[in-house]
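Me: I hope this is not a bother. Any chance you could explain this protein sequence and its structure tokens? It all follows right here:
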Amino acid sequence: MKTSLRYFLYLIRANRKNGASVAQLKHYLKWKKSLQPDSSSVKDEQPWITYDVIDLLEKNIDNTSNVFEYGGGGSTMFFVKRANKVVTVEHDKEWFQILSPLIESKKYNNWKGSFQLAQKGNLVEPPERANPEHYSSDDEKSVGYNYKNYVCVIDKYPDSYFDVVLVDGRSRASCIAHSMTKIKKGGFLILDNSERAYYVEQQKERLATNFEVVIDNYGASPYSQSFTKTTVWRKK
């Protein structure tokens, strides 16, 4: 216990310049438990994002909420228990074939899953990962592929339809661009691993015009032995 607490305090100090503070101590016991060998995001039905953002979601999602997520997993299990409707788009076929029957076995009828394989070929040569019009990803397995069909699944829904959009999959710059109009006023846009500045570097002005930052600091997240960053914007 002492050793892990000492390490947690070290993480706070190491990430202080990135917004971490002693307020993270309230998450310590949950974080410690999540690192046990028998813990996993899907089993625990918990998103793999910072605890600060998980707390925000627990307070703001109810049976009237519509949620869209790029990338499924523990977050899907978390959302379907709480929300009115959950739409998930996944690019990994093997993972989608595991997730789908798991949700069906629990008899949730508020989930719509979509598998969208990446298309071979770059839309622009060379693709720029920060440009949302290129639908690219810097993931090693994604080189030479584009994710336009994956990203555009959200376009099937009306503007101002979703209360929450979680971006935690491929081609995140493109996902952000397509999500902005689909979020209700007062709704949330959530970007995981937002320490990767290129996700938003070409969209800062549009984000600042239409959204306000709610959470933007490094903090503890389940299943991770280092602090990570998840940013949340609320639509003005």
In short: The chain has a mean pLDDT of 96. The two ends are 43 Å apart (CA to CA). Residues 63 and 84 are 5 Å apart (CA to CA). The chain is about 30% helix and 20% strand.
